[in-house]
TrEMBL record:
Keywords: Methyltransferase, S-adenosyl-L-methionine, Transferase. GO terms for biological process: methylation. This is O-methyltransferase. It comes from the Bacteria.
Length: 234
């Protein structure tokens, strides 16, 4: 299989399901304005997040890594009346662009945008959050993913779901000697998840318009959520 074939297959399914509207299409092109590669999730991946939120009957969702708001729109549209998405973005210009896309999509009223370093915001969120999250989506700085997972576990309810994107990194995750910080972070993340008795998890390799990568799905086992004090976390 080649990238051209993966693109063609994704294009076929995108055309068959026809899920994307102008607001989503605009958010999907956010990278162009920043002269960046297309680093957001694909249309099919966005729809998968939407469906996971629906299956989970999620009323509270946490997203670490907003970028242009594409995945945020998919997640927010899965929320019931009164539901809330908290999304964190380090880069202010990305967050401001996302705000426009969220407004255009008609979901800004159910999204709480936080701007700053996630590892600074998450401890405050743990202190102030009234209810735990039903679903957490992590798609941010790869070296810090193990710590994001720690906080996702802290902030989620028993039975909650944690989804992490870009965990295969084109297959580089299998190379124990790779010095790249993102690869080392993902290897450390997987080792942490495997050693965590409170979750059951798997990682799935993916191909498509975003190339060869994968995502991890972790479920917090009911009755297993013995939360540590927030001060004990990184």
């Amino acid at each position: 299989m080649t990238q051209n074939q993966w693109n063609a297959v994704d294009g076929y399914f995108d055309a068959v399901f026809g899920d994307e509207d102008p607001a989503l299409a605009a958010a999907a092109e956010a990278h162009i304005g920043f002269d960046l590669p297309d680093i957001g999730v694909s249309r099919s991946q966005g729809k998968l997040l939407h469906l996971l939120a629906l299956v989970q009957r999620a009323e509270r969702i946490l997203e670490i890594g907003t970028f242009g708001g594409y995945s945020s729109i998919w997640l927010a549209r899965a929320l019931p009346p009164g539901g809330r998405l908290v999304t964190i973005e380090w880069e202010r210009s990305f967050a401001e662009t996302a705000a426009g896309h969220l407004a255009r999509a008609g979901v800004a009223d159910r999204v709480d945008q936080r701007v700053g370093r996630a590892l600074d915001i998450l401890p405050d969120l743990a202190k102030t959050a009234e209810e735990p999250f039903d679903l957490v989506f992590i798609d941010a700085n790869k070296p810090d993913t193990p710590e994001y997972f720690d906080w996702a576990l802290e902030l989620s309810r028993p039975g909650g779901v944690i989804v992490v994107d870009n965990v295969v990194l084109g297959g580089a995750v299998a190379d124990a000697g790779n010095p790249d910080g993102g690869v080392r972070g993902m290897r450390r993340f997987h080792e942490k998840v495997a050693a965590e008795p409170r979750v059951s998890a798997t990682t799935i390799q993916t191909v498509g318009s975003k190339g060869y990568d994968g995502f991890t799905l972790a479920v917090i086992l009911p009755g297993q959520q013995d939360r540590p004090e927030a001060t004990d976390l990184p």
